[in-house]
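Follow-up to my earlier ticket, as requested here are the two runs.
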Amino acid sequence: MDNNQRIHKCTTLDCKVPGFRKLSDLRRHQHSHEAPRFFCPVRTCKAHTRGFKRKDNLTEHQKRVHEANARASMVASHDSKLSARAEPMEDEEMGNESPPLALMAIKDGFDSSLSPKEFLLAKLAELRTSRKKWIEQKDEEIRAVEKTLFLINR
């Protein structure tokens, strides 16, 4: 048998992959035809709702996309012995005057002319505006689909 032959074929009807040399590669590929099972724990991430079909893809996504946040939360959890899950801080913990590490992990950058509180308020306003635009866009899409359904049912 030639080592370049792809003898293991996917049995899914619409699959266009030519084949696999190893049975283990075929089995891993067959999982990609199943429903997504691995979701990103970051609620604001697209992958939180879309998900991944393989766990290694989720792991790679977390390393690439959320690496800065992960490092910041690891340092924070080590220092304050909090769980890795983001939880609201108690008032007595807020007495610390230094900005939280999560602030430093924000990718949009920090305007040094603003105080950390002003920066966060501006970021919050930006996120709320973005959310409103997204909701308006989805409402338009819903209306378009409803109109199409109405026209089909005439």
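Run two:
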Amino acid sequence: MELNSLLILLEAAEYLERRDREAEHGYASVLPYMDDFSSKKTKASPISRKTQNNRSSHNELEKHRRAKLRLYLDQLKKLVPLGPDSTRHTTLSLLKRAKMHIKKLEELDKKALNTKEQLQREHRYLKRRLEQLSVSGSSERIRTDSMGSTISTDSEQGTLF
């Protein structure tokens, strides 16, 4: 009787360890595992071919999903500047660095946009100022000859004498 209770406790401990291990990886919960030590052995029904095919196709799909995820993480690793903290980066640290990098790029983009708008406003102001100066200065134009000396217009010459 005491041996039977001990075996049940061992089974329960193994089940809890396995459940905790799988919960760390995010897998779905599993059914209790029946070990050879179990006194309640039941003969499992043979697994049908359909179930085996479903399981193998699921395994293949999961394998491809993990491969694509690895590929995407490798591509992300090339795009995100990684710090010299360590030689090997975890997925979590890579994703955190990618998030920080995106925020930094967004800030730079915002600053560049503000600078562009400021330069456009300044350009419009200078263009208007140039037009004003060209309109007001058209009556009193100063011409330069080929030597670089200035020749005054008739209106200026009349005021000098």
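The only thing I checked on run two: Helices lie at 2-24, 49-79, 91-137, 154-160. Let me know what else you need.
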